[in-house]
Structures are given as C-alpha cells and as structure tokens.
Amino acid sequence: MDLIPIGQFAAASRLSLKALRLYDDNGLLPPAEVDPESGYRSYRLDQLRSATMIGLLRRAGMSLLEIRRVLDDPSAARIDEYEATLTCELAERQQVLDYVRRYLKEEEMFDVSVKQVEEQPYVSLSKRVRVVDLERFIVRTVDELTAAHEPAGNAFTVYHGEVNENDDGPVEVCLPVATADKKLPAGEVAYTVAVGAQTTFPEIIGAYDAVSVWAKANGRELAGPPREIYLDEVTGDRPHMEIAWPIR
C-alpha cells in the first residue's frame, strides 16, 4: 500500500492540514494509517479523489452532514437534490431582502388597536416545528381538530417560542369549543390585522413587530405568548388573519 504523508497529501488535494483533521474527526476522510507513537497521519493515493470531491462540495457550501450523504451515495441525483435546495433557499433569501427594502421605506405597515377578549375554552395539539414546516402543520392540525370537534369560533395558533430556521417553538394549534379543560384567559389584547401577502413569511414578522413596538411606545407590557387568529372572512381570495398579543 503506497502511503502519502499528510503534508504531501494536503498539498496534492489542495486541502489544509486543519481541514484534513476536521474531515477525519467527522469520519469523512480517515487516514489510511496513523502512527501509534507520533499520531502522524498518512493517506493512500487513491483517497485523493474523495479529498478533491469533499473540497469541491465544501466550496459549494455543502455541510459536512450533506457531504456524508453524497459520499454514501455518490450520484448526480444527490447533487441535483442539493442544487434544488440551494435554489429554494436563494429564492427565500431574496424574498426576505425584498421585504426589508419595503420595510425601510414604510414607517408603518400595520395599524394596532386594543380590545377586551372573553375567556375561551379550546382544544389543541402542540408540536415543535421550524418555519419550513409551520404552515403545513397548522393547516393539517386545524383540519384534524375541526373534524373531531364542533367549532365555537375561529381557529388560532399560539406561539410559545420563536419559530424560524433554527428555533422550533413549540407551536400550539387551537380550536375554540363550547366546553374544554383548556381555556384562553379573558383580558386585554393589542392586535393588528394582516391580509393577503402580509400573512406569509417574512411579511408576517412586520405584524408581530408592530404590536410589540406599539406596546412599548404606549407603556404597556406583553403579558403572554402571541397568537394568530384565522378569520373566516376573506378579502377576495386573500387570507385574513389577526395577530393578537395579551397586554397589561
């Protein structure tokens, strides 16, 4: 077996020593031999192909976990899947940037009001979910709850934690009913209404920000998790949603 010292292998593969150690630690490119006394690593010449592939995939922004999948299934289909994911992510980022441009130009995009709400019994299902799966979870759960119970009002979602690419709530999807052990407490809420594109990410963030900013500007405190109420009324074919936040 022809072995290449790690320094020469690094030069031939155009990978740094640090990168080679990282790929070894993650099981992507283990050395062919490690000296038991010095710990010095050596590689086989035929490992250069894998090293080159790993380096190229890293330049393409692929994570170590995704690279592991490619090495386990070195097919063009796997690369096509990753490219499709990149295309979707780029479109989402461009959408966010477009929203930020509008956000910078417009001082106020949502009007905030205050109202008193009555105690509301409800049934619900909760789950930890990130933003990519949020809408699907809400729609499916509302359908399930509506099929199993007689609604006494509009379905709503309570966000017990942040939901984004990294944080997963938890999220509680709720359906008002005549009687239930769970009860939404009576109290005062600050709220705004989102219609059409305003109900989707990232525009919906502006609705939450508007309520939060209003509370601070008016000397009020947010007193619980926010909720989205899905109103039956629609404007044309556009969705209609209320963002409400308990205050004190």
β content, as a range?
15-25%
Order of helices and strands: EHHEEHHHEEHEEEEHEE
Number of domains: 3
In the CATH hierarchy, the third-tier topology of the largest domain is known as: Multidrug-efflux Transporter 1 Regulator Bmrr, Chain A
Q: What do we call the CATH homologous superfamily of the largest domain? A: Regulatory factor, effector binding domain
CATH classification class of the largest domain: Alpha Beta
The low-confidence parts are none
Number of strands: 11
Helical residues, percent: 40-55%
Total of DSSP H or I helical runs spanning 4+ residues? 7
Please identify the structural class as seen in this structure: alpha+beta
Main beta sheet: strand number and arrangement? 8 strands, antiparallel
How far apart are the termini?
Answer: 75 Å
CATH architecture of the largest domain: Alpha-Beta Barrel
The largest sheet has its strands arranged as 4-9-11-10-6-7-5-8
Calculate Rg over CA atoms: 26 Å
Average of pLDDT: 89
Shape: elongated
